[in-house]
Amino acid sequence: MRNLLWIIAVLAGGPALAADDTVIQYDCIPNYANWGGVTALYKQKSGVTVPPDPKGSSVAMAAIEKEKEAPRADCAYYSGAIGVAAAQKGLHDGYKPAGWEKIPAGLKDPNGLWWTVHTGTIALIVNTKALGATPVPKTWDDLLKPEYKGKVTYDDPTWGGTGFTFVYGINALKGGTDKNWKPGLDYLKKLDANITRYPRESIYNDVLRGEVAIWINADGNGYKMKWVDKGPVEVVIPKDGTVSMPLVMGMVKGAPHAAATRKYFDWLLSTEAQAEFAKSFFRPIVAGTLPGDLKEKFLPDSAYAGVKNLPLAEMAAASDGLKKSWLAEIGKK
Question: What pTM value is reported for the model?
């Protein structure tokens, strides 16, 4: 059978993997949340390949929706609100992986349509060498000062879930609501004067090299740059508050490799996998799996006292409208 699949693949013009040899995950960026390390470890343990995929959360959801009559992906990784939105659009099949009971109730769908694998916090990732003599910003309002012109970047929120979480979150922090996005958009219009670009791909390496001085992104990426890559990087949790970001998994409805995907999901909540994710400094969702030596490298708990947890269902409902508004009012450059 394996040889037959190989022959069919060759005749079709490309390689193929048997159903139990592969899982296709959209939004599987190797240097984000240590997906490169996680998938390499899973390959070593199981023989199953989970190839890298460069899509951000929003693009992953759009691709799954476009392909829903003939699904190509088995699963996707999203920021929380985008994953919930995908489930609301009917793009997921339910599955409750082993370890389901260890996920807090507010961080999973009752029917298994999505579930949190780990969490992050929206932060300022500052390359201090690139920043030079300019002081390290401590608040969101600091970023509006003229001295940060050309030094700030955040991801296009129509591409990735981290960017969307920031855009939605800053609206909440500035007093906006699901029906009133003006406070957040007003802030972002002011911030636009200091923005270099709105990337639609991971700029992790750009920040590490100092090509970007300040990246508004998940705290875990900054900690990894500092402690693993030994970069001149400081993680700042803004003193005027910030928002949490659950990262979730969802199984695509009609997944081509459904059985293999269920096994993969089971493993992602294991102590082994959770500890591997933790190497990227994203906080494991399973209690007790964050190694002590890594916890010591986070900012103290007091720095996170002002972190706000956002309502994922409301965020999901707002996603399409807020993205359109952002594009119309800000994302023209």
Answer: 0.81
